[in-house]
């Protein structure tokens, strides 16, 4: 019978002393102390008196205040799903997504015309502001955060320049609303 205790550990953290437990999966013993080899949660097998670490399924590398870059895969009024491809500027090969909060980005207060901070297909750079409930919560409030690449909704060509809230297509003249990152339009894109 296995008992899972919801205790998060990082590699090297003490999980038990060897008088109490035997080292199990993803642990090691050194000088009478059993420590975690992986980030995850501690599992105690009371029958065999073995202690293990169950690696976290969530990408362990993402922390609050990190930044990630990804593609918007769908957006609602107050949030958008972002498929993450870069973490702190480096490619990530894990398959994971974050939830981009769009609250407070819809323009100048109540009654103001609704704007569209992001659209599906946009590439956005986002700040990680919370990891509550295992969800990577993102926002784009800072000047460096926001859309870094987007296509024209009218003609499909890349949009190249804009200001903080609007972007204009060079090809067809279409104007779209976005919350752009400060470096929007520079190439190559900095993830
Ligand atoms: Zn266009």
Overview of the structural elements:
Mean pLDDT is 86; it is low at 1-5. The protein folds into 2 domains: 2-55, OB fold (Dihydrolipoamide Acetyltransferase, E2P) (Beta Barrel); 67-177, Beta Barrel (OB fold (Dihydrolipoamide Acetyltransferase, E2P)). Strand 8 (67-75) and strand 9 form a beta hairpin. The chain contains no helices and 16 strands. Helices cover 0% and strands 46% of the residues. Strands 8-9-10-12-11 form a 5-stranded mixed β-barrel. It is an all-beta fold. It binds zinc ion (ZN). Zinc ion binds next to loops.
Count up the helices: 0
Q: What is the second-level CATH architecture of the largest domain?
A: Beta Barrel
Structural class: mainly beta
CATH class of the largest domain: Mainly Beta
Number of strands: 16
The domain count comes to 2
End-to-end Cα distance: 46 Å
Secondary-structure element string: EEEEEEEEEEEEEEEE
- Average of the residue pLDDT scores: 86
Q: Report the β-strand fraction as a percent range.
A: over 45%
Across the major sheet, the strand order is: 8-9-10-12-11
Q: How helix-rich are the residues, as a percent range?
A: under 10%
The global form is elongated
CATH topology grouping of the largest domain? OB fold (Dihydrolipoamide Acetyltransferase, E2P)
CATH superfamily of the largest domain: Nucleic acid-binding proteins
The biggest sheet amounts to: 5 strands, mixed, barrel
Identify the bound ligands.
zinc ion
Rg value: 22 Å
Poorly predicted runs? 1-5
């Amino acid at each position: 019978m296995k008992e899972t205790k919801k205790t998060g550990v990082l590699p090297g953290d003490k999980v038990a002393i060897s008088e109490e437990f035997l080292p199990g999966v993803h642990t090691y013993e050194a000088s009478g102390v059993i420590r975690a080899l992986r980030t995850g949660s501690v599992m105690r097998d009371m029958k065999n008196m073995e202690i293990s670490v169950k690696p976290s399924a969530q990408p362990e590398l993402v922390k609050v205040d990190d930044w990630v870059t990804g593609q918007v895969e769908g957006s609602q009024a107050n949030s958008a799903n972002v498929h993450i491809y870069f973490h702190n500027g480096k490619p990530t090969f894990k398959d994971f997504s974050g939830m981009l909060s769009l609250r407070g980005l819809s323009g100048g207060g109540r009654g103001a015309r609704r704007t569209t901070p992001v659209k599906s297909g946009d590439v956005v750079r986002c700040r990680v502001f919370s990891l509550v409930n295992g969800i990577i919560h993102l926002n784009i409030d800072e000047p460096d955060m926001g859309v870094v690449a987007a296509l024209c909704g009218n003609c499909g060509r890349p949009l190249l320049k804009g200001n903080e809230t609007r972007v204009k297509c060079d090809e067809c003249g279409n104007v779209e609303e976005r919350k752009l990152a400060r470096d929007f339009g520079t190439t190559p894109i900095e993830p």
